Amino acid sequence: MRDVAVIGIGCTTFGEKWESSFRDLFVEAGALALEDAQLAGEKIDAMYVGNMSAGRFVEQEHIGALIADYAGLATHHIPSTRVEAACASGGLAFRQAVIAVASGMEDIVVAAGVEKMTDVEPGASTDTLTGAADREWEGFVGATFPGLYAMIANDYMHRYPLTREQLAQVAVKNHFNGARNPIAQFQQEISVDTVLKSTLVADPLRLFDCSPITDGAAAVIVAPFERAREFTDTPIKVLASAQASDTITLHDRRDISTLDATVIAGKRALKIARCIHKDIDLVEVHDCFSIAEICAIEDLGFCKKGEAGKLTSDGITALNGDLPVNTSGGLKACGHPVGATGIKQVYEIVQQLRGEADRRQIDGAEIGMTHNVGGTGATVAVHIFGRI
Amino acid sequence: MRDVAVIGIGCTTFGEKWESSFRDLFVEAGALALEDAQLAGEKIDAMYVGNMSAGRFVEQEHIGALIADYAGLATHHIPSTRVEAACASGGLAFRQAVIAVASGMEDIVVAAGVEKMTDVEPGASTDTLTGAADREWEGFVGATFPGLYAMIANDYMHRYPLTREQLAQVAVKNHFNGARNPIAQFQQEISVDTVLKSTLVADPLRLFDCSPITDGAAAVIVAPFERAREFTDTPIKVLASAQASDTITLHDRRDISTLDATVIAGKRALKIARCIHKDIDLVEVHDCFSIAEICAIEDLGFCKKGEAGKLTSDGITALNGDLPVNTSGGLKACGHPVGATGIKQVYEIVQQLRGEADRRQIDGAEIGMTHNVGGTGATVAVHIFGRI
pTM of the entire structure? Predict the structure, then answer.
């Protein structure tokens, strides 16, 4: 297996992008990534694209071919493949791109992610997202994603020390970071009070505990590490790629407050990268809801179960803390265009390791991790990156 | 890159399976494949599943995790990934499984395909399938798949010698083969007259020129070739895996009667396998419509453009001909559960190369090819297999 590096990155701004179609979004992200790598499109050998539900959001399937075509690459007949794992679609598309290069089968591969979520009625998007859970045992009986994560939050708060204020501080921190990220959907700082006084969505989760409905796309380009300096002075090495699955329903889990797929994928990734937790300078975790960030920090092993609330309120996970979490603003402030999120996480870590994160920059960041979750944890992808 | 072999195969019967849910279908196919390989589920390292549109057919996404869970593998937390490329979803899932093993990343990998198409109104399934074409430039203006392939047929018949009777003979041959295949949806022989007197769907295509709406699932298990004999006495080697893309719309093509993605993927596959056409003993091609089989035979290079009609009427592509095409009965007679078709093609070729195809058996078959098309040819996967 060959070593793999990220040689180019691109991302649209995230938000309610009424002026952009599904196609516009990924073309924009892809063009930015090519420009970043100073690469002509015809050098691309293959593409993988993460997308959850274009079939329901824009009535379009066959996304791999569509993207290759609209990117102007149909005449080159490159293999282009869509990968789907609900909210982890982007992370899995990145992983497939890494495997394709690591195997020696392809050299220059684009991993993209895209979701256009706002072209349907609001209720329809919530229902579509329920397709990430178990339609028969969860969706049909009325469970929505806020409802499922509220169950996790209730169970967690019953068993571990986590105050409502600490939970709110996850969102406050992520809005603080998002206010420093030009691609973020919400670039406003908020207070704990903003969260606590926001509309109750699914007790105990309030509006500001939830990631929003978002349009957006992101793309990164990977290449064999040994060739990376042909394209960039700052290649970022992929130190590990790991993926794990779990039961699709919450009620079948051993423990609903611990995402076993996160535990397993996190351990696998650290082992592959030959890293320990202290080596990781920053992490992008999948904070689709504030409680998800709390669980992720613990399940990835950065602290013991029950300690992430205090870690957050003590500022350890803040931009200037010992373990900055979601420097991008996370799903909460950046927004969560489902298929794009996993790639946007890579985009953020690469910016940080290159030293290009501007007002969000973590000084001297050398090793970063991404953590992308599908559904309530039935799929998890963890990647580790290093500045070499 | 390591050599890869197929060590186990399984397939449900195809048809209108009112008694089986989406989940039942893939569990059945997976169990049959495991039984065939005499393998316990916990030996599986990873899964890839091809599925086009469960989001619209059964309102369920996150298919990789769902499958791993219902196959009883959630507790093993294996990576499980859905791949989508419309009607080529199965072929691409197989390709990803091959890449995963060839790369050395995984050892025992399941490639599955599944589609449950009958749980919606008939009109809804036609509309869902239009998601495989360009929704904005084809679907929204009223083009359906029969309509798009009728355009190909009209263009082809205008330019090349192909009679309406020869076109019908594609369906007659495939029904003949399907009548000898226990998994086929239609196990009845038909005559040219049956085709010519059937309902006109999209001129010149009649009902019996079209593959049907079908439920079904298929699964195959791949492993490193060097380990294959641990599991089976008849490993079938994967000699080549190739994939190509093209414009998603017909009107953007250089030539609508030649599927360039088939031409390119076919050439790539032969080159990788170090084969010439004469080495290929049989082919499963993507006959979603009768005209598609005509184009496929030519575009894969088995004869010149314009000759496949005569090849068919001369019986060359029949079971007892020099180049048996679609010994399974093809999409026409087996049915076309979209995501499953690419895997079912592999299932057929492996049966043939093992000598287990019973009344469809091609004596002495040593090398076989599969050809799986997405949409009207925007994605094509070609694989070549050998008995070693």
Answer: 0.98
In CATH, the number for domain B4-121+214-236 is 3.40.47.10
C-alpha A124/C-alpha B137 separation (Å) is 24
> Could you give the ipTM of this predicted complex?
0.97
Listed residue (A204, A127, A170, A206) closest to A285, CA to CA = A170
Which residue is associated with the tokens 């859970």? A133
Q: Which amino acid is at A27?
A: V
**How many whole angstroms separate alpha carbon B326 and alpha carbon A222?**
39
Catalytic positions of B, please? 87, 336
Would you call A55 an interface residue with chain B, using a CB distance cutoff of 8 Å? yes
Which residues of A are identified as catalytic?
A: 87, 336
Residue for token pair 């075509």: A69
CB of B83 within 8 Å of a chain A CB? The answer is: yes
Say which CATH topology domain A4-121+214-235 has. Answer: Peroxisomal Thiolase; Chain A, domain 1 (3.40.47)
Residues 6+ apart with CB under 8 A from A102: A1, A2, A3, A4, B103, B105
Cβ contact A52:B61 at 8 Å: yes
B positions 95-134 inside 8 Å of A (CB): 96, 99-100, 102-105, 127-128, 130-134
* Helix axes of A338-354 and A89-102: crossing angle, nearest 10 degrees: 60
Q: How many CB atoms lie within 10 A of CB B275?
A: 17
> From the list B62, B136, B245, which residue is nearest A131 (CB)?
B62
Q: Is B55 on the interface with A (CB under 8 A)?
A: yes
C-beta separation of A70 from A96 below 8 A: no
Q: Of how many residues is chain B composed?
A: 388
* B77/A104 CB distance under 8 A: no
- Interval A44-73: pLDDT, tens: 999 999 999 999 999 999 999 999 999 999
